[in-house]
Amino acid sequence: MADAPHNLVADVMLGGVVLLGAALIAVLLFRRLGLGAVLGYLVAGIAWS
What we know:
elongated; single chain; mainly alpha
């Protein structure tokens, strides 16, 4: 029996949701520390790549 093909759209959507979740957590943490939201977004983007 052949393996089921990957669903590219679902993979991209899952990656986007994970990235948004990581960005949300990073921004909340960085704002709590007084470092600013932009730095939180940058750190989340760098950590993802």
